[in-house]
Structure formats: structure tokens, C-alpha cells
Specification:
Layout: E1 2-10, H1 15-25, E2 30-37, E3 43-51, H2 54-66, E4 70-75, E5 81-92, H3 98-107, E6 111-115, E7 119-126, H4 128-138, E8 143-148, E9 152-155
Antiparallel strand pairs: 1-3, 1-4, 2-3, 5-7, 5-8, 5-9, 6-7
Length: 159
């Protein structure tokens, strides 16, 4: 099972290293990690996706609470939450394939953010399933380059 954990931390040098080190020292694999400033520049939000059972999640949470720079930990796994991945993908696109690629872009509500003579760069935001489905559909055209953000998440509603 995949667990999505949101960790509010002090925005200081070394915090990311300490947290990722905590995971690796205990043999936990981080499947996805996204970090950025919040609405307060002194606080960052880390969205971490880790695989494992409830025991793994409990261990991770206990260890995170011990770190001085950690302000708050939220486990979104059992909550109603919104999550998104962002991908930039450069795909081979010549005159004969460009129209078909543009149709896929429209169906997936993606954007073409750069056009070159032999390729296009596409930006897509959505669930992990949507991103993977899009990747699988453009693979036959030839993927030249790709970068993904990893999951970001936020609880729904009044929290």
C-alpha cells in the first residue's frame, strides 16, 4: 500500500537531507518526494509517498516526530485529499505525427509548451494514473526526455 504523508518543516538548510536520511537508514524506500515553500516562507511542505503496511507508516511517523525541524505530520492515506503530479515530456513530433499528438494533448487537457522542428514539449498535470496513461500513449512516437515532480497533496475541505 502507498502512503501519502505531508510534513511541515522549518525551511532551513539540511532538513531535506535529515528526513531522507531517516528513511534510508531504516530501509524505507521513498517512492515520491516533492518539497517547496508554503504560504509562509519560513515553512516548507514535504509530500512523501512511501510504500508499506501500517507498521511501516507508524515507524516512519514516530521517527519524523523526533526530528527538531518537523512542525506537523499528516497522513493523507485514509483522508479525502487532492493529489497531482506534473510532467514535462519531450516527444518526437514531425509534420506527419504532430496533429495526432495535439489531439492526445487536448484529450488529456495538457499543454504544448514548446514546439521544435522535430519535437514538442508537453506539460501535463493530473493523478499518477492519468500521467502514466499519457506516457503510455505517447511512447510509440518516441520520448526524447521526461521529468516528473512526484506527488503533491492537500487535504480537502476545512482543514
Amino acid at each position: 500500500m502507498k502512503h501519502t504523508i505531508s510534513v511541515l518543516v522549518e525551511n532551513k538548510p539540511g532538513v531535506l537531507s535529515r528526513i531522507s536520511g531517516l528513511f534510508s537508514a531504516r530501509g524505507f524506500n521513498i517512492e515520491s518526494l516533492a518539497v517547496g515553500e508554503t504560504e509562509e516562507c519560513s515553512i516548507s511542505r514535504m509530500t512523501i509517498v512511501v510504500g508499506g503496511d501500517e507498521r511501516v507508516l507508524e515507524q516512519v511517523t514516530k521517527q519524523l516526530h523526533k526530528l527538531v525541524d518537523v512542525i506537523k505530520i499528516s497522513d493523507f492515506t485514509q483522508e479525502n485529499f487532492i493529489n497531482r503530479d506534473l510532467i514535462l515530456i519531450k516527444v518526437n513530433a514531425d509534420k506527419s505525427t504532430r496533429l495526432e499528438i495535439m489531439q492526445l494533448v487536448n484529450v488529456f487537457r495538457a499543454k504544448i509548451v514548446d514546439i521544435g522542428p522535430k519535437s514538442v514539449i508537453i506539460e501535463l498535470t493530473g493523478s499518477e494514473e492519468k500521467v502514466v496513461a499519457f506516457i503510455n500513449l505517447v511512447k510509440p512516437f518516441g520520448i526524447k526526455e521526461m521529468v516528473r515532480t512526484g506527488r503533491i497533496a492537500m487535504a480537502r475541505g476545512g482543514k
